[in-house]
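Trying the structure run again after the queue cleared.
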Amino acid sequence: MSIILNLETATTNCSVSIAKEGRILAIKEHDTPNYSHAEQLHIFIQEVLREVNMDISELDAIAVSKGPGSYTGLRIGVSAAKGLCFALNIPLISIATLSSMAAQVTSKDVDYIIPVLDARRMEVYSAVFNMDKDEMRATEAEIIDENSFAEFLAKGKVILVGNGAEKCKTLLSHPNLSFDTTVVPSANEMAQLSYKKFKVGNFEDVAYFEPYYLKDFILQQKKKK
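Done. Tokens:
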């Protein structure tokens, strides 16, 4: 048996779930552009535990979204997950943010799923999955142009999902291409993914694990007047 706490903070959606053998027992999430993860995350953890009348000591593992995504959001989620793992002496599981986004696509009328997270300017974080949710192309940071994803569009139907799909709409047009800008990373889809890793003992080193930022954090400085 496995009871796993799943934490998703890679984007604007602060999301927490508790799952037993991959089945959601409780979930709490709130998507706001204000990035209020620092205030909400631990409250949501307490609320989902309370909802299922469970003590935190009953958890068998903690799963956290590893990125790519917001630098600050990832830091908050990973710090909380590592702290709980240390305190409870339980394993840490990491879930690729784009994998949980791909898991939300249930349509059978597409051949490739491409989750895209908004980065700077015309850049996105993306990966390519087939309909079995197997990764066909690893995560990259790429600048969108008229030829983006042409290799996959030539082979079959493609759906771009996530907030990065909005900027892709301005440049990409193809009969095989569709968009879903409503998909956000969620602890709901993390449940099955973390359970699969738990069953095979695919754990992270709690002491050394770091989020997958993909790009270096750049501190924006105010311009001098």
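DSSP finds six helices and ten strands in the chain. Worth checking whether this holds up in the mutant runs.
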